[in-house]
Design a protein that fits this description.
heterodimer, B: alpha+beta, Sulfite Oxidase, Chain A, domain 2, seven-stranded mixed beta sheet, five-stranded mixed beta sheet, 12 strands, 22% helix, 21% strand
């Protein structure tokens, strides 16, 4: 692998970064990634999200969830193509993705739609919501098995199960494109990044597996 | 001829400017006021009595004006770039006196009235806006509508140098809208030139924009530069972009859902993070005034 070759001569920036990151504890990442949840909720309560805070909060949580999902997807290619090893942080990113999408769902269901029968009928009747919901459902077994016990217990099946991430991120990207009015640029950029990160995993391109 | 339509609210009901600010604090404190509004929501007559205008801030900082960007705060951020003087409206097609009508000349010829209207966006949020404006019928009368005309087409200014949003093909620019002639001549249909007694801000469609209170907000086209009288139904922007989701009529109708969301309820803007949804009224509460325009029409087919 590329970084092994460079390590023989002089330690590169990536090597030094990897060494430093190895000593960084993981738990603060959970706290840092959690902070925007109460922060945006507070802004929503106090007028900081504009005259219509419900939709704004829903979108903040949803967009951060999708960003984290994409960040999690970038970790393998970053190691493979840039030699940067962030694998230690992937679980925290994955678990926090779930927390954001769960928050997004809760704001939508309880602050936006407000009654459970309407929530249910929207999930069944509105394709973009059906798709978003399907993406959220994909994340549930992933979050539930994001612990050492599950990794040991499931063995090789764990890796297989966690390929559900790919389905979740595509569903999330389509959900975003579909929910906006007209053709807008931002959701298309997200989709391009998602497809790019998935394309890097196509087996033909792989020189040597992770 | 002005004053064809009278609000059930009297002058005494107009909220003095100081009270808007107080109300904002009251609204922030709780949802009691909204609970009351939702309790009355079922009855148009009562709901009319309960009309309580949104804060000036809400009306001028939460806008859809895609020529300035698709974010709700983009119009208030970028619309100050729009030059609104001089301004003229080209009136053409089936009229006796086609030509460019200067904004000042129009303002000299018309009577400006206060119109406190519900405003219901197709996105299922709503406001109450104290517009100042004149009846569209007065402007059309100035140009002299010919007997064969059946529709009115409208066009928004297209200024790539002043409108950062038109770089993106979110919609086909310029924005166009249309009404049937009887809808255009209805006394509820106005050209708004002000809000709360101030000149209408750019982000709300300066210097003059259509307001058709019984239709979804996107029908109320902003910053109008062209009005064309025709005998054929004119194309409309959202219908062109997505004919399955947006019809020519786009009358507010709680029984006809948008394919992607329900139109049965709406969220009044200004109620904060815990604002309750309220039932949407047929024709946005103007059923008594406008239902006769559509008698015998299938409103599900002609959405």
């Amino acid at each position: 692998m590329a970084y092994e070759n460079s390590a023989r001569s002089a330690p590169s920036v990536v090597d030094r970064l990897n060494q430093t990151l190895r000593r960084v504890p993981i738990w603060p990442l959970y706290i840092i990634l959690s902070l925007p949840i109460p922060y945006f909720f507070y802004l929503g309560l106090t007028g900081g999200l504009g005259p219509e805070p419900i939709n704004a909060l829903e979108r903040e949580y949803g967009a951060l969830g999708l960003k984290l999902l994409i960040a999690g997807l970038a970790i393998t290619p970053l190691r493979r193509f840039a030699g940067l090893n962030l694998i230690r942080f992937r679980r925290a990113i994955g678990v926090m993705t779930f927390v954001y999408i769960l928050s997004h769902f809760l704001v939508w269901a309880f602050l936006d739609i407000q009654t459970l029968d309407r929530v249910w009928s929207d999930i069944l009747k509105r394709p973009y919501i059906t798709i978003g919901m399907a993406g959220f459902l994909c994340l549930i077994p992933l979050a539930a098995t994001s612990n050492n016990w599950s990794v040991r217990r499931l063995g090789p099946r764990w890796r297989k199960l966690h390929k559900l991430t790919y389905a979740a991120v595509i569903l999330g990207g389509v959900h975003y494109i579909w929910l906006v009015k007209g053709i807008q640029l931002e959701p298309l950029i997200y989709m391009a990044v998602i497809l790019g990160l998935l394309a890097l995993r196509i087996p033909g391109r792989r020189k040597k597996s992770g | 001829m002005a004053n064809r339509w009278q609000n059930t609210l009297s002058e005494n009901d107009v909220t003095p400017e100081a009270a808007f600010l107080n109300r904002r604090q009251i609204m922030a404190g709780g949802v009691a006021g909204l609970g009351l509004a939702s309790g009355l929501g079922g009855s148009p007559a009562l709901a009319q009595e309960a009309l309580d205008p949104n804060d000036y801030e809400d009306i001028t900082q939460y806008n859809n004006y895609y020529e300035f960007g698709t974010g709700k705060d983009d119009p208030s951020r970028y619309a100050d770039q729009l030059t609104t003087t001089p301004w003229s409206v080209k009136i053409e097609g089936m009229v006796d006196k086609p030509g460019d009508y200067a904004f000042e000349d129009i303002m000299k010829a018309v009577t400006i009235e206060d119109r406190l209207y519900r405003f219901r966006c197709v996105e299922a949020w709503s406001m109450v806006v104290p517009w100042n404006g004149f009846e569209l019928a007065d402007l059309l009368d100035m140009a002299g509508v010919q007997s064969g005309a059946k529709y009115v087409a409208f066009e928004t200014a297209l200024r790539p140098d002043e409108m950062p949003g038109v770089k993106f093909p979110v919609l086909e620019w310029p924005y166009v809208e249309g009404l049937r002639l009887d809808e255009a001549m209805h006394p509820l249909t106005i050209m708004a030139t002000g809000i709360y007694g101030n000149d209408i801000p750019n982000q709300n469609g300066a210097p003059l924009r259509l307001v058709v209170p019984w239709k979804y907000g996107f029908k109320s086209i902003k910053s109008v530069v062209r009005i064309t009288l025709t005998d054929t139904q004119p194309p409309t922007s959202w219908n062109k972009a997505n004919p399955r989701e947006y019809g020519f009529y786009s009358n507010v109708n709680p029984e006809v859902d948008h394919p992607r969301w329900s139109q049965a309820t709406e969220r009044p803007i200004g109620g904060g993070l815990f604002a309750r949804r309220v039932p949407t009224l047929m024709f946005n509460g103007y059923e008594e005034e406008v239902a006769s325009l559509y008698s015998g029409m299938d409103l599900k087919a002609n959405f």
